[in-house]
Specification:
VC0802-like, eight-stranded mixed β-sheet, methionine biosynthesis, kinase, alpha/beta, binds NADPH dihydro-nicotinamide-adenine-dinucleotide phosphate, oxidoreductase, Rossmann fold, about 800 residues, Carbamate kinase, about 40% helix, 28 helices, elongated, binds the ligand N[C@@H](CC=O)C(=O)O, threonine biosynthesis
Length: about 800
């Protein structure tokens, strides 16, 4: 934890920049203060901030209604209220007053500034609020922090930074040992007027400050976790790179990739300062470092939509990079053809570009056609795979340009996400790794691990399945890339671990990673939000998570949505039978489920099929346990609790708000036998045996069989849920089953008179471990770009 830096000699200098979305609320300011506080106290820290949330947009609106004093004053009052609420929520009253007084003063000056057309002074207010508030929060945490207005030192001459003057001015303001919190986005020009630094101006401020203070590293804290091989919102299999070379980052910026802009990179070009992109929402992740030297080249695809072409004579004294800096927009110089240069730039700034060129006496021809550009920045292998061209050809390719480092296609329309995924697969072939951590090494867990060894080999050309941990209630083997065939031996030599150690280990493990919970533990399921925050997808055979009280269940779901992680629970009802997926598919197709009923317990199905009175019922229970069909404690099956849980799993899948106790339960177990130790139960098993013998005799006398039946009915807005023992006649659909079969009878608007029936073994280590592997296959398919996110997520 960061303490007050009292040392006179601080090791290195770091700059951290936080954008508006990282500062959109009091909670976000506090999260940013946490990040700063957690930095190594040996570093001299500079923090560059944008305006909170959408404050700059509001200030632009106030400027736009400068002449309409009523609208202007209304907007000013609303802004004052909004920012005051932020300050009050972020600081105790005593500390808030000083910031509030400043805010009042800045806003009171706005009408005069507008009259005098000092619009940039108005825009500066957003950043002034952020620096003043954040430095006050840091001081409140006993850190020495000082707010700095960048206009007091940052000078630009003809739009170019005047580093000499800026450094000299800054040296008079620097306080050794202090954290300097600096306004991003604003500076002064050579005439002393306030200026703003345009789009992504605060990133530019951060690298300018980085250059002025000779920082070791500048970190841009944003909402992306890394620099990806493609836009991860469109290409699920996009690779998050942890290191990118400076040269390639510049190329990406020139191609208009939005993560880093050319102007942001410029001040650090040729310096030893590293640049890092990290997510302020997931500060535990390392992010991506842009470094001068990196072994090998990464490969990227990047799009730039709505662009147009300017053709110029090659003999001109202006470069595309220079024009891009003037326009603050990407200008891509296409490989030269003959005597002419072709520059590609956003259509929206074509006229401004022509005006800039005309000022420099340069004539350019604008063909006015609009294109969508797709660029491939080549990696180690520079040969364009023919297959990539074939994928693109049907999608209106108008031109293709290629040189040693990149290929650019100009298309008539944007590409769909599906096509981009295919192109990505062709151009950036990659065998992704998926790290698998397995909790629970009992009956099902052991089977899952032996199947994992087979899957690892089977899928080796598609994905590297890496076993990155195995644990049970006694021991934890937490190490990456384990030899699966050795897990038992290695686990036996391992110590136990506490939940905090497990979370810390999972956090440090590179993504993508999945935790497979094959324990029966409720305490373990309660840790899911932590595991998800650590970056894990979750696969559960454990039914405890899906049946927690609704508030906790929803907390896990929300954590998954927030961190974009999946929680796959296929085996929590019906083992490997795809009952949840069938329901999801029907619902997403527009069907309306009215009833799900049937046999949901493999154990009870097996017991009631096998029990013929030839030996006591409890002997059959032992056989079922031996066969790996029962819950770890078979009384969970006999009490009907396990079936009650499965019914709740399906109800929640259907979006019904229900708790376990809302489901009526008729236990198979005589009252009193459900509590106490297994030994107690075993000593009193004759009670169970007598009851079952009597029930069997009754059923046989009526020509019936015993079945344990669950029913969830949703009709006319009312929900009825019960699980009970029933006698069914020989011709009934639930009578003719194989021992251990589950039967799910689904009635819906589309399957009303004749229901949809799913039937098959509903328990056992092989089908359950197999079901867990079908969940794993969902993640593998996403990773390899085969499918988009399944309905499970939505
Ligand atoms: N059997 C089946 O047909 C089906 C089972 N399931 C579910 O699969 C899960 C596992 O069943 P099964 O393999 O039969 O059970 P087992 O009792 O054979 O194994 C349970 C494992 O979980 C471990 N464990 C228990 N608590 C914890 C904890 N807090 N932290 C870490 N590990 C823990 C146990 O550790 P230790 O070895 O130290 O005791 C053991 O290795 C259960 O939730 C069950 O409901 C789901 C569908 C079907
Ligand atoms: N004991 C359970 C196992 C699967 O969930 C059952 O028998 O259904």
């Amino acid at each position: 934890m960061l303490k007050n830096a009292t040392q006179t000699q601080l090791n290195t200098t770091q700059v951290h920049k936080f954008g508006g979305s990282s500062l959109a609320s009091a909670a976000r300011f506090s999260a940013v203060a946490d990040i700063i506080q957690q930095q190594d106290p040996q570093h001299q820290l500079w923090v560059v901030v944008s305006a909170p949330g959408d404050t700059t947009d509001t200030l632009l609106h106030i400027i736009a209604c400068a002449d309409d004093t009523v609208s202007r004053d209304q907007a000013l009052t609303a802004l004052q209220k909004q920012l005051q609420q932020l300050i009050t929520a972020a600081l105790p009253a005593a500390d808030a007053t000083e910031v509030s007084v400043k805010l009042k003063h800045w806003l009171a000056e706005v009408p005069d500034a507008l009259t005098q057309k000092r619009f940039n002074d108005v825009l500066a207010i957003g950043e002034l609020v952020s620096t003043t508030l954040l430095s006050a929060i840091l001081r409140q945490r006993q850190l020495s922090a000082t707010a700095l207005d960048a206009r007091d030192f940052l000078r630009l001459k003809r739009h170019q930074p005047d580093l000499t003057q800026s450094t000299a001015l800054l040296s008079t303001l620097t306080l050794p040992g202090h954290i300097h919190v600096v306004t991003g986005y604003i500076a002064r020009d050579e005439k002393g007027r306030s200026i703003t630094l345009g789009r992504n101006g605060s990133d530019y401020s951060a690298t300018l400050v980085g250059a002025l203070v000779n920082a070791t590293e500048v970190t841009i804290w944003t909402d992306v976790k890394a620099i990806y091989s493609a836009d991860p919102r469109k290409v699920v299999a996009a690779i998050p790179y942890q290191q990118v070379s400076w040269h390639q980052a510049c190329q990406l910026a020139q191609l208009g990739n939005p993560v880093l802009h050319a102007r942001t990179l410029a001040p650090l070009s040729g310096t030893q300062t590293a640049l890092r992109v990290r997510s302020s929402y997931e500060p535990q992740l390392p992010g991506c470092r842009v470094v001068q030297q990196v072994a090998g080249r990464q490969s990227f695809i990047t799009e730039l939509n709505d662009v147009t072409l300017l053709t110029l004579h090659s003999d001109i004294a202006l470069s595309a990079e220079r024009l891009a800096l003037e326009l603050q927009q990407p200008v891509i110089s296409l490989p030269q053809q003959g005597d002419n240069l072709c520059w590609l730039l956003p259509t929206a700034c074509a006229e401004q570009a022509l005006a800039c060129l005309a000022d420099a006496d340069i004539h350019a021809v604008w063909d006015t056609q609009r294109y969508c550009a797709l660029a491939w920045l080549k990696g180690a292998d520079p040969v364009l795979p023919a297959q990539a061209d074939s994928v693109l050809q049907p999608h209106a390719v108008l031109h293709r340009y290629e040189n040693e480092q990149q290929v650019i296609w100009l298309l008539a329309r944007p590409l769909s996400s599906d096509v981009l995924q295919q192109v990505h697969q062709q151009l950036i072939p990659h065998t992704p790794s998926l790290r698998v951590v397995v909790a629970g090494t009992g009956n099902v867990g052991t089977e899952f691990l032996s199947m994992l060894m087979v899957q690892q080999k089977r899928l080796s050309t598609k994905v590297q399945l890496q076993l990155a941990g195995v644990l049970n209630s006694r021991q934890a083997l937490l190490a990456d890339n384990l030899d699966i065939s050795q897990w038992q031996l290695l686990l036996a030599q391992s110590d136990s671990c506490c939940p905090q150690q497990l979370s810390a280990y999972l956090t440090a493990l590179p993504e993508p990673k999945v935790l497979v919970d094959i324990t029966p533990s409720q305490a373990f399921a309660r840790l899911y939000p932590d595991f998800i925050a650590a970056g894990c997808d979750i696969i559960s055979a454990n039914k405890q998570g899906v049946t927690l009280p609704e508030t906790e269940y929803l907390q896990i779901k929300r954590a998954g949505q927030f961190h974009n992680k999946q929680w796959l629970t296929n085996t929590t009802c019906g083992a490997g039978i795809p009952v949840q997926r069938t329901l999801q598919e029907l619902i997403s197709a527009g069907d309306n489920i009215t009833e799900v009923s049937g046999i949901f317990s493999g154990t009870l199905s097996w017991l009631l099929c096998q029990f013929d009175g030839s030996k006591p019922f409890s002997d059959f229970v032992l056989d079922a346990r031996q066969a790996g069909l029962t819950e770890p404690d078979p009384r969970d099956d006999l009490s009907g609790k396990d079936v009650q849980r499965k019914l709740l799993v399906l109800a929640r899948e259907l979006g019904i708000s229900l708790e376990l106790d809302d489901i009526r339960l008729q236990p198979l177990l005589p009252v009193g036998l459900e509590n106490g130790s297994w030994q107690d139960f075993w000593a009193r098993r004759s009670l169970l045996d007598a009851e079952l013998a009597q029930l069997l005799t009754q059923a046989k006398a009526g020509g019936k069989v015993l079945r344990y039946v669950a029913c969830l009915s949703i009709r006319n807005g009312s929900v009825r849920a019960d699980v009970s023992l029933q006698q069914v006649s020989a011709g009934h659909a639930l009578a003719a089953i194989a021992p251990c079969d589950n039967v799910f009878v689904i009635r819906s608007d589309w399957y009303n008179d004749n229901p949809l029936v799913l039937k098959g073994p509903g328990a056992g280590k092989v089908v359950t471990a197999g079901g867990l592997h079908t969940d794993l296959a969902v993640l593998v398919n996403q990773l390899t770009g085969k499918t988009k996110l399944p309905a499970v997520l939505t």
